[in-house]
Amino acid sequence: MRRILNDLKIMILANLWIVPVVAALVWALFQFVAPPPPMSASMATGTQGGAYQQFAERLKEELAKEGFELTLVPTSGSRDNLQRLLAEAPEVQIALVQSGLERQLAPDEQRQLQSLGAIYQEPLWLFYRRDVELDRIADLLPLRLGLGGEGSGTRAASDAILGANAIVPEQYPDTWQSLGGGKAARALMAGELDAAFFVGPAENSLVQQLAANPDITLAHFRRAAAYEARLPFFNQVKVGEGLLDLASNAPDRDIVTLAPVATLVVNDDFNPGLVPLFLAASSEVMKNGNLLDAAGTFPSAEPRTFELHKDAGHYYAKGLPILQRYLPFRIASLADRYIILLIPLIVVMIPL
After folding, report:
1. pTM above the 0.90 mark?
2. What is the architecture, at CATH level 2, of domain 40-121+262-320?
3. Tens digit of each residue's pLDDT (9 = 90 or more) over 91-110
4. Sign, CA torsion 312/314/319/321
5. Which DSSP string corresponds to 83-113?
6. Given CA atoms 94, 103, 141, 215 in this order, what sign does their dihedral have?
């Protein structure tokens, strides 16, 4: 027995060096390995009841399944969202932003933000009354036109379309109004406007309501390819006959329109470790697609707006990190970091 205890004593004394090595590894873990990502964040959405807010609500539900708390901050739209992301002390870390609005920022402001990718298409719809002749954009000049609310994504899109036709804001007639959303829709249906621009998914209630109105029809952008070439944040979108409303057969013919995309944009306060979590949740929200986006199309790295976040690029190239494919997010993110300690510890222990 004494011999056994003596041998044990010798073994312990011979390997006492392991204690400071392990202590050093633990110290290095807490010094140099990033802490696990937070389990909460704040997101700028859009107007109450709008498409952005609806998507954000569904995203919040998906994230809650992983124990993640997403606080939604209602805003007036894309431009407001950008301002909130760029604030000196931002209250939000992530926001939905319409593609194309990044062009309105100074280069140094653009560098402060990164994209996690496109989430869905939000087409530009030009509705007009049936008693109006409308063949080209220039035909809008004598009409009463709703351009979209000041500072809205709709206004940014309509300005871009008009600008491509050499019609700049200084030339806008007095009959053109900064009117959008529900106000523009009601004015158009009441005959107080001849035409109006709207931006939103095909399922949007305003789009559906206008499409079903027998006094209103939808413009066909027959030069869509030319717009797409000059305005790369727009995509051509084919809208088949009856797609918006089968009962009223709206539109009453196949048309083509143009669509920016809704994108997820983050600032420097957004933890990189949350990127795969948010993209996986977004993929779940969009897994069935919608009237215009096929299932599995979004989220997508294209089209590019702001610089694509490197962790988003990794997600699009390789999918979720291995551990997150099989473990809950919180456990996987912790395990990811402790593996860094475990590997050198195993190497140290092998000689024993």
Report:
1. no
2. 3-Layer(aba) Sandwich (3.40)
3. 999 999 999 999 889 999 99
4. negative
5. HHHTSSS-S-SEEEEETTGGGGS-HHHHTT-
6. negative
